[in-house]
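User: Fold both of these, please.

Assistant: Here is the first one.
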Amino acid sequence: YNSFINKRKEVEILNEAQNILKKYFGYENFRPGQEELIDHILSKEDVLGIMPTGAGKSVCYQVPAMILDGITIVISPLISLMKDQVDSLNEIGIPATFINSTLSYNNYEQTIENIIHNVYKIIYVAPERLNSDTFLNLLNKINISMITIDEAHCVSQWGHDFRPSYCEIANMILNLKKRPIVSAFTATATELVKNDIVNLLHLENPYCLTTGFDRKNLKFSVETPLDKFDFIETYLDAHKNEAGIIYCLTRKNVDTVFDKLSDLGLSVSKYHGGMTEKQRRLSQEDFTFDRTKIMVATNAFGMGIDKSNIRYVIHYNMPKDLESYYQEAGRSGRDGENADCILLFSRSDIITNKLLIESIPSENAHYQEYEKLNDMVNYCNTDKCLRKYILEYFGEKTTFDNCGNCSNCLDTSEFTDITSETQKILSCIKRMNERFGSSMVVDVLRGSKGSRILSLGFDNLSTYGIMKDYSKDTLRDLISYLITEGYIKSIGDKYPVLMLTPMSNDVLFNGAKVSTKLKLNKSENRPLVTKSKESTIETKVDENLFTLLNDLRMKVANESNVAPFIIFSDASLKQMSTFYPTDAESMLKIEGVGLNKLVKYGNRFIETISDYVSKNNIKVSNLAKPQKTKTQKQDTRLITYEMYTNGMSIEDIASERGLTRISIENHLIDCLEKGMDLDLTKYVHTEFKTEIEKAINDIGIEKLKPIKEALPEDVSYFDIRYYIALSKLNNKSL
């Protein structure tokens, strides 16, 4: 019996989570992994969620935060992320705030007062706050249900964004009078970083879930253009109205690219550590609010950026490791729409990264950093599936060799046999006794007359000058490719030497063949690069309507002083421009449209769509609207609302829908609280209005039973809830 009761409660809680997802966030179904993590959180278990950017990590703690009794504290590393998240939550009707250095004294005092009086369900804080005794005292005064650590990889020195302040989190939790649920989330984590998160945050028997790192909507490309800026100029000309980020390794590169794009008259911002805090903030706001379309930045920009409509991320230089690259590239396509992730590779990027590595003191001679850099270089040199390379780097098993959406898989050119070239390179390394790096090997193969080569007698080797017709860059690319494919080992960090592998022997002595899509061109300074084909995925989006809705979104965002993507995402606008929702019912079928957003913005968007449909004689049938899967449901409250406003009584609705009267009453009160137009007075004992309002003011609204007991017997719970809803609406209007 107890097992049955517990199972029933579990189902009820999950149904409540599903209702919150639809009501506030506007989605019918959870994404992969979300429901499992929420289930374990609501079962009072610690959790660790490793989910790629755009997979919906925030929903995993925001939904249970609305169900748990107390407050959820979210530890977040960046102020910009806090503001975006809090703005988004307040827009959809979830009370949230943040505490950080941007608050004035008066705002800080008011925020603390509100926290003490349980105004908020979610509070974002910077990790640096955890050192404050005042803040710890505050936490011990309030009921904390859960502490969430966002960007949890920052706790690990093996992570790519290590933050010493994250090391204080575990001590802070230990100093709380009552230990809450602890949940941790990150987008990228190797097994080593994952173990660090569990141990350093003192997670207790956590439920760990890695949903998979694959982002199928992202198209990965590696390009080696002769002129990087020419490539960018051509690309941007074809993507004029799209938002994107261009990452550069150095501040100097950021300034150079920014100046060149500005000279072209493009809408561009820049961001790096050499700018003042005010300059960086204004630049980020311009990009976030769509006042500029392009952001040129170092890796100082972006962690936690919640902008959903970024259509491309271009790396002007190769990053230092795959963790950084995948996180930065993953800032595109957060709305699930197609996006490009392009890395512009040149050998000078390797040198720049090595200089950056050596500029930071290290106890282990930078062994780890060089290993990660080698993995990054191998990614740039492979001719196999780029997506597969990334996923397997993060420990994910793959069942495909061709993803169909990366530059290598889209390259239709034939493989070229390079067995002869490979044998020459391997023989040269062998005859040099496997004691030198690629530069020396290339010089010997090309027949250099350098003093060191002559003094070592390498001009007497049979491989000396054997590949003099090949350029240095071509030979370096060939060697890099052979390293990537396992025919050569690169041993050492700062000054690596080349050594042979068992695969080398197969090529030299056992007749093994080697082939590649690398185009060898002896007359140019580098191999020819086959440009990846543009995606041919077709959509039915009405671009003219999309433009109108995009303009309306910008207008509404300016009026509300929030970023446009917080109003509706690009994905939501594209669905509207595909299915033409002209009433509340069909608008609620659009992903990202919940009741709160429908009430706040729905009418303006519906009017624009209806006007467009009428002027252009577009016939909208039910078949043209988003179709729900068998597991999807229309919001039950809206069904009740429409039946009531069409003249049906509460009793008739309950009978028609097979629900209890109380359920129908609850639906209508929920709609009333959302500000939807409803007249319920014929079902309310209005003669007790004064007594009910006085009892609400005297007793408060935390519990209904004490209010009911203080009032005449004829007063119903529906009467009380009705006047509480009116009180909330009046307070909002004030």
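And the second sequence with its predicted structure:
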Amino acid sequence: MTKEGDCVDNNEEKRVNMETLVKMQGITKEFPGVKALDNISFEIRAGEVHVLLGENGAGKSTLMKILSGVYQPTSGTITVKGKEFTHLTPKDSYEGGISIIYQELSVINELSILENLFVGKLPTKKVAGIQVVDYAYMRKRAKEVLDKVGVKRDPNQFVEEISISEKQQVEIAKALISNADVIIMDEPTTSLTTSETEHLFKIIRQLKAEGKGIVYISHKMDEIKQIGDRITVLKDGTYVGTRNIEEVTVDDMVKMMVGREIKGTYHNESGVDLMKEPVIFEARNISRKDNRVQNVSFELHKGEILGFAGLVGSGRSELMNAIFGAEPKSAGQVFIDGKEVHISSPYEAIQNGLAMVTENRRETGFLDNFSIKQNISIVPFLKKSKGKGLIGLVDNKAENEYAAQQKQDMSIKCRDVEQNITELSGGNQQKVILGKWMAAESRIVIFDEPTKGIDVGSKSEIYVLMRKLANEGKGVLMVSSELPELLSVCDRICVFREGKIRMTLDIAEATEEKIVKTSTGE
């Protein structure tokens, strides 16, 4: 028998789920020479996860920056809780209960976790008639939200001392602490493990139950099907459509986004037995003092894509940093074409034909005060330079030639190569990063999480590029936390656990189950 109270709760839930929190209508945004958004409409309801889909450069982030008050639309209206605006300021957005978690982390490394949570909104109280910061309230509230998102750290610890995934969780806690009604999550699981992602989904479902509206931006289709209620797709700044999540398949979503079929696998189709090809790169007994890499050896054959699987923190990225000279190794040797080379810095790695596309493109992938042209040309200039980069870094003609060639080869979407790299979408930034290594004609290319935060269309382009490099006789090392990605691209896969390679699988025998069991020690 249904209780009277249950009837009230069900009606209330139905009412909450129908309430429109934000309505954006006819939003157009023009930058000099570019129409980023053209007559876009978008609605956020209470108690729903509304997924915003589109390739990099489709206009998703621009639309959300308009909602958060960072950009002002050229035309259109925004209605927040029944109040209409022609544009929002950051203050309007905050007071309207809108909070955004950006794809690129905005935490301040030099502040503590506690200070990051309250930056710009310190609570105060009166003591002896004087307004002072209410640290007791800050600590109490911080404990509540940090427990909620699963951060098991002292709130007084500096953010620079915690991992990337923990920084992402602090970003989520910042949004929760403001009691926002609308929370925009731009690629929130990019740096999270599977268990951390599951915990985030638990938080999102709890927020839905509380009547919050969630805007969820992600390129991970399996996530979208798990957590989304509705999807809206943008393409090249235009509106494609809005659908209920149960009405569409993953293939439907991909077609709406890119307008074409996406290839499923990118394996070697040359018919050449890669294991009979010469070994062009070898790591022998590599170790680090911190024991995050312990006595690791592997060989890379000409034309091969060798993948590295394992849990976050298992030692894969730490191995690549040691090989590239970005972090010191305590023991071990590196051989190229059978000849030992000594690499103790990235400069020496570049000189020896190594390239590294790093996991965190914002912090280590590009120079944010440089143009596209300058970012592309810096590595080939370093490779040709003398005196460890002190001589030979200026050649305007070559700089223009490198940039023009890579803009074409990488299909970089930009106004022109003089544009600052920070003005590009994440996918196009990644193409610029790849372009600088291609311009340097690097022979051994390390890809560390190369498609993190990248849309399915750009992912496909990057996979095609990786296979093209391999077919040209280069060697590719690929670290990825996405098992389907490794299985669809690599020729062999090394499985890491606790700083060691525990198994190496030929792609014909590799399965997700084998990799997971090995990486977890089951």
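The longest helix spans residues 194-209.
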